[in-house]
Amino acid sequence: MSTTTNSQVLLRTELGDVQLLNRGKVRDVYLVDDARLLFVASDRISAFDVVMPNGIPDKGRVLTQISLFWFSKLNELVTTTHLRNHLITADVSVYPPRLHQYRNQLEGRSMLVRKVKIQPVECIVRGYLSGSGWKEYQEKGSICGIKLPAGLRESDKLPHPIFTPSTKAESGHDINISPAEAAKIVGGHIAEQLAELSVMLYQTAADYALTRGVIIADTKFEFGLDEGGNLVLADEVLTPDSSRFWDVEQYEPGRPQDSFDKQYVRDYLLTLDWNKEPPGPMLPDEVVQGTRKRYLEAYSRLTGKELE
Predict the structure, then answer these.
(1) Do residues 240 and 62 make contact, with C-beta atoms less than 8 angstroms apart?
(2) Confidence class of residue 83 from pLDDT cuts 50, 70 and 90?
(3) pTM score
(4) What is the rounded CA–CA span in Å between residue 60 and residue 70?
(5) Beta partners for residue 244, in sequence order
(6) Which of 132, 157, 156 is nearest to 143 (CA)?
(7) Does the structure show a pLDDT above 80 at 218?
């Protein structure tokens, strides 16, 4: 049985004897066989690296369906650059038969993917000055060692998108590093490819999103290497959990922007006397529903469809 707070929220998957490899902040990852993994997006939500005790209805489905949309949308670019993605299928009916009995936990929120060796850096691309980037710019005039023009305001568009990698922390906060430091971790050739591909993917997605009235301020990609040493686009792609989405019509530089993401939860938590350590506080219903609304709007804006 799955563990839920109500019939609409899936907080934890249980797939019998299928081997659980990792229960992350949001995703449960299972080993299907030597070559394939099963990614399942729960409705868990984290903020400040702490998972909240209650979830957001439909969140896992939104994350999965947006990723599937972008995998398809970016496929032409991915093909022309010889970059592949890890998706095999999201059709539960063609999953291995032993998974069919868990359809109620998997439908709409899971992906069968190729197993790859995930690279140990987060590939962050920033097109606008926000979040930790804004904080670092105020202190140093740069982000991850990349010098930026003086006099920029919070939420300003950058002269061009920049690649600002970070470490991948198993627990706690990821740490921003310079592209040179990333090269020391993964090797110069791979680091160069990661930077080039990340910026290309971001720019393609950002240009499309603008036609849908959405600014992608920044985003995070993950890449893996297949058995042949080829880079593979992996994990989630351009979702409200891995990106900042802003409304074009509401955009106004010089201040923080309203986001179609979990910033709404962060803003609520900042009003509390909470030390940002586990356990997280229970989110009130208005925050849960307000967050759900933002995730659903991100999906409908970008895809032009309502979530089924």
Answers:
(1) yes
(2) confident
(3) 0.93
(4) 16
(5) 218
(6) 132
(7) yes
Cα torsion 129, 134, 140, 146: sign: negative
Could you tell me the CA-to-CA distances from 203 to 53, 192, 198, 199, 211 in Å, in that order?
A: 36, 17, 9, 6, 13
Of the listed ranges 35-39, 102-106, 173-177, the one predicted with least confidence: 173-177
Element (H, E) at 243: strand 243-247
Domain coordinates in residue numbering, the chain: 19-68+86-115, 118-260
Residue identified by tokens 């439909």 is: 58
Structure tokens belonging to residue 73:
């949308």
- Chain-centroid distance of CA 224 in Å reads 15
Least confident of 107-121, 169-183, 253-267: 169-183
Q: What does the alpha-carbon distance between residue 102 and residue 123 come to, in Å, rounded to a whole number?
A: 33
- What does the pLDDT look like over 92-115, one tens digit per residue? 999 999 999 999 999 999 999 999
Which residues, 6+ apart, have CB-to-CB distance to 303 below 8 Å?
Answer: 65, 66, 69
Residue 157 structure tokens: 């568009």
Could you read off the pLDDT of 41-60 as tens digits, one per residue? 999 999 988 999 999 999 99
3-state class (DSSP) for residue 27: strand
Please give the span between the terminal C-alpha atoms of the chain, in angstroms, as a whole number: 24
Is domain 118-260 in CATH 3.30.470.20, yes or no? yes
DSSP string, 98-159: GGGGGHHHHTTTEEEEE--EE-SEEEEEEEE--HHHHHHHHHHSEETTEE--TTPPTTPEEE
Dihedral angle at the C-alpha atoms of 182, 188, 194, 196, nearest 10 degrees? Answer: 120
Record the tokens describing residue 143, joined without a space.
Answer: 């982000």
In angstroms, the CA 42 to CA 40 distance is 6
Assess if CATH 3.30.200.20 describes domain 19-68+86-115.
yes
